[in-house]
Amino acid sequence: MTTLDLSEILSRFILQTNWFSSSGGRVKYATFMPNGHGETSVFRTSGITESEIWNIGDREVSIRRSKPILGRADIRTNDVISKDLKVVPSEPPVRHANIIGWSDERSKQKMIATELAAESLFHKR
User: How many other C-beta atoms lie within 10 A of the C-beta of residue 59?
Assistant: First the structure.
């Protein structure tokens, strides 16, 4: 599963309460902020069931981080690429990818992460 389709859905699993607003049903920018290596971890979830998506989150994210999955943010690959970012498959685990190409400037990262959050769809666990 290495070739990316622009309409492919990427899921970012949410582990922290400050990453979403449950009352507004929206994703916050912190969800998409890159880690210290300049990457945002996502999973390629097109073509699988809701149950399979949550199972990936439980198996590959929750257990490894010792935190429960609170929800997820789904976004299309082309919405990410339109921000001059790249989505690079990074397996294992299966279906894992990283969003890369972030600016080194935190203010620019926050601006782009805010745009991604606004374009994503929140799914509460």
Answer: 12
Domain ranges of the chain: 9-124
Cα–Cα distance for residue pair 46/40, rounded to 1 Å: 18
Instruction: Report pTM.
Output: 0.93
Asked whether 98 and 39 are in contact (CB, 8 A), the reply is: yes
Token pair 């981080």 in the structure block, residue: 65
What tokens were used for 36? 């210290």
pLDDT in tens, 65-114: 999 999 999 999 999 999 999 999 999 999 999 999 999 999 999 999 99
Q: What is d(CA 2, CA 19) in angstroms, rounded to the nearest whole number?
A: 28
Contact between residue 70 and residue 9 where contact means Cβ atoms under 8 Å apart:
no
With 0-12 CB in 10 A as exposed, 13-18 as middle and 19+ as buried, what is 23?
A: exposed
Rg of the chain, C-alpha, whole Å: 13
